[in-house]
Design brief:
Layout (H helix, E strand, L loop, with lengths): L4 H14 L3 E6 L8 E6 L5 E6 L15 E8 L1 H14 L4 E6 L19
Parallel strand pairs: 2-5
Antiparallel strand pairs: 1-5, 2-3, 3-4
Length: about 120
């Protein structure tokens, strides 16, 4: 069963603070099933944007039944903002969470990337 969006984000932010990193909710979305977008900020000012993985990658595993994919990797803040603004026009119920950390491997469950989607 998939965790509610607000519970998933609460757990993720607590894990970030517990290990000495920073997390903030930039925008609250629909509490139960709002899509979650994650901005990872790096010390050099660049950002990576994680978005919900397409259903073709979803196998029901992962933290709380949610999987993410890298939508934009290490780009300027303005490019991330433009992408998020477009997403908000499509889905005004989404969440945006900012993480300031160098490593999100144990925080954000990523979808397995396959070279052939039929694998």
């Amino acid at each position: 069963m998939r965790l509610r969006s607000d519970i998933f984000i609460s757990a993720m932010t607590r894990r970030m603070f517990a290990r000495g990193d920073f997390a903030a909710v930039e925008r609250k979305g629909e509490e139960q099933a709002g899509a979650i977008f994650i901005r990872q900020r790096f010390r050099d000012g660049l950002e990576t944007l994680y978005a919900p993985a397409p259903q073709t990658f979803f196998n029901g595993e992962g933290d709380g039944g949610r999987l993410f994919e890298v939508r934009i990797d290490r780009r300027e803040q303005a490019e991330i903002r433009e992408t998020l603004d477009r997403e908000l026009k499509f889905d005004p119920d989404l969440w945006i969470v900012e993480l300031e950390t160098d490593d999100i491997a144990d925080i954000v469950p990523l979808a397995e990337i396959r070279s052939n989607p039929l694998d």
